[in-house]
């Protein structure tokens, strides 16, 4: 079997991703952003406030985006305001919108900004299935599962990776590029995807915890020497069928420490990578999680 030059393959992937992104930008400029839309709104008597921001899809550890894209349009007529929120496809196959941030010269009396449902922060959504319906005689598309979309909207706050800080960190401490490290990071990301899908089916919210959270926060990636994936869940969201759900997803249970009432921890394994699920307990204004040392059985809090 002929050997493939990895540099050539990587270059092709970068080129194809760039072409896809440029097509999206072209589509916006040609169809959504054409002057005819804004002109038609003005002819109807609407006042327009455009809010723009940097395009995060062009940012990476090596390149910081300088391209600005439309994030929100506010259309005002007779004291009523219509907020148009632009959703952009991100590489993880989800939809993203930016935060609504006013420039120094912006008219702060244009709209009741604190009352707007979207824009307090950036948000992300699963791509919804849309259905056509009629509203006040107009054909419009709405999410097929409206309740799920509204539930996502309440918990959709998105934190962008800190590319500048990660870039500076990796300049001092470069990522391990050995074959073993690259393979682990690939497996860890795959395991995290499986965990996210499984917990979504159970309707259990979770967050990145411990070393996995540190890797994202510090270097926008997976710490190769951590050797596992860590997530956190509030004990109030625990379900008795969680073990069966992960087994059905192809993972095997490695450890079960503690009890539901105190310091529960579950560990699963897939493809030689361990997934640690830490359960967090609320005690007044304090949140804590317990731990158990596998060899000695010692408990920590």
TrEMBL record:
Protein's UniProt keywords contain DNA repair: no
Domain of life: Eukaryota
Keyword set includes Transmembrane: yes
Pfam families found in the cross-reference section: FKTN_N (PF19737)
Membrane topology according to the record: Single-pass membrane protein
Ribitol-5-phosphate transferase FKTN N-terminal domain ranges (all copies): 1-35, 36-189
Main subcellular location of this protein, as a coarse class: membrane
InterPro entries per the UniProt record, alphabetical: FKTN/MNN4/W02B3.4-1, FKTN_N
GO cellular component: Golgi membrane
Spans traversing the lipid bilayer: 6-28
PANTHER family reported in the protein's UniProt record: FUKUTIN-RELATED, RIBITOL-5-PHOSPHATE TRANSFERASE FKTN
Protein name per UniProt: Ribitol-5-phosphate transferase FKTN N-terminal domain-containing protein
Organism: Scophthalmus maximus
């Amino acid at each position: 079997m002929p050997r493939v030059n990895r540099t050539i393959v990587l270059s092709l992937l970068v080129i194809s991703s760039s072409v896809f992104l440029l097509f999206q930008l072209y589509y916006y400029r040609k169809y959504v952003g054409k002057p005819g839309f804004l002109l038609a709104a003005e002819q109807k008597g609407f006042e327009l406030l455009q809010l723009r921001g940097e395009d995060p899809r062009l940012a990476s550890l090596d390149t910081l985006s300088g391209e600005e894209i439309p994030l929100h349009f506010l259309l005002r007529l007779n004291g009523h305001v219509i907020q148009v929120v632009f959703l952009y496809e991100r590489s993880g196959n989800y939809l993203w919108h930016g935060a609504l941030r006013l420039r120094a010269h912006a008219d702060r009396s244009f709209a009741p900004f604190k009352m707007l449902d979207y824009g307090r922060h950036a948000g992300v959504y699963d791509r919804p299935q849309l259905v056509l319906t009629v509203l006040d005689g107009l054909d419009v598309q709405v999410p097929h599962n409206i309740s799920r979309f509204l539930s996502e909207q309440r918990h959709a706050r998105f934190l962008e990776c800190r590319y500048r800080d990660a870039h500076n960190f990796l300049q001092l401490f470069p990522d391990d590029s050995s074959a073993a490290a690259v393979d682990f990071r690939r497996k860890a990301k795959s395991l995290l995807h499986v965990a996210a899908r499984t917990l979504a089916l159970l309707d259990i919210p979770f967050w990145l915890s411990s070393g996995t959270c540190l890797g994202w926060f510090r270097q926008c990636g997976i710490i190769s020497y951590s050797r596992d994936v860590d997530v956190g869940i509030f004990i109030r969201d625990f379900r008795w069928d969680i073990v069966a759900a992960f087994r059905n997803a192809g993972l095997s249970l490695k450890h079960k420490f503690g009890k539901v009432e105190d310091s529960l921890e579950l560990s699963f394994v897939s493809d030689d990578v361990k997934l640690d699920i830490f359960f967090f307990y609320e005690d007044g204004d304090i949140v804590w999680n317990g731990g158990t040392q596998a060899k000695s059985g010692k408990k920590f809090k």
